[in-house]
Amino acid sequence: MYLARVIGTVVASRKEEELEGLKLLLLKQCDLDGTPSGAILVAADSVGAGVGEVVLYASGSSARQTLITKDRPVDCVVMAIVDTVATDDDVDYDKYGEQKAEAS
Q: For 2-103, which CATH superfamily applies?
């Protein structure tokens, strides 16, 4: 599993039938504090994530292990929305603390 921030959505009006009904998100890998820093990916969303949220995603054959992606031709899936990331008893990222700071 990897951390990423949802930076957008992907709309494809024509696609493989097995992809019908899947919401596609544009992700950018991120640091522990939620700062985007890595590659850009397209992922199927299995949890209802939205733009701006930090998420956990899986890629490769693991991406086809969720109920929504089973046996579908996906290589990346969002499988969790992150609330908190902590290392060595320090909070690196807090979804709710970040939202309060942005609202100020």
A: EutN/Ccml (2.40.50.220)
Cβ contact 70:46 at 8 Å: no
Look at residue 27 in the predicted model and tell me its pLDDT: 97
Give CB contacts under 8 A, 24+ apart, made by 22-28. 22/68, 22/69, 22/72, 22/74, 25/49, 25/78, 27/55, 27/57, 27/76, 27/78, 28/4
pTM of the shown model: 0.86
Given a contact cutoff of 8 angstroms between Cβ atoms, the answer to whether 69 and 63 are in contact is: yes
